[in-house]
User: What shape does this take?
Amino acid sequence: MADEEDALRTSGFLTEEQARELFADMNEVILAGEEIRRLRNEMITLFAGLGRPRERIARLTGMSRPPVSKQGAKARPDGPASPPDITLDQHDAPWLEGRLRGLAEGISASLHDSAHCTRLTDPLGRSRKRFTPQNVDALRRLVEKDLMERRTELPGSHRSAYDAISRGLDVPAKAAATDAAGTGSAPVRRALARRIQRDRLGGEN
Assistant: This one.
C-alpha cells in the first residue's frame, strides 16, 4: 500500500487522501442539491395545498406541468382554503433562523459583500452548511460584529431586527415551539421567514 501511495505521489496524480477529499467535496454538493430539491418539492406541495393552479406553480418554479402536478397531488385535500396569516413576529427556532439568514443577507448586500457574515450566508443558502446550533451561533456572532463595527453604514432597522431575532433565539426551545404556526417543515419555515425578512428590510431602507 505504501508503495502504491509513493507511486501515485511521485507520478503527480492524486493520492488516496486527496481523492477522498475530492469525492467528499462532490458528495457535499450533491447532498446540498438534494436538500434544495426536497425544499422545492415541499414548497410546491404547500402552494398546491393552498389551491394555487398547477399551471401557475409550474411558471413560478420554471418546471413543466407533469412533475408539478405529481408533487401537488401530495397536498392534503383538507388543506387551508386561504393562505395562512404569515407574520414576521413568530418565535419557533426555524422561523428565527430563517429571519437571521435574511438579515445577514441584507447586511451583506448593504455592505457590498464586505460584511463578516457574508462568509456564512452563501453556504447556508446553498445548503453547503446546515442550520446546526453551532452554525447559527457563528452567524449570530458575525452579524453582531457587523452591526457593531459598521453601524454607521447600516440602517437602524437591521439592529432592531437582530435584537428581536436574538431575544427569540434565547427563549428555551420548549417554550418557543408553542408559537410555531404549522406552515410546513423547518426548511420551509426558514425559507418563508428569510424571504419575508429580506422584503421587510428592503421596505424599511
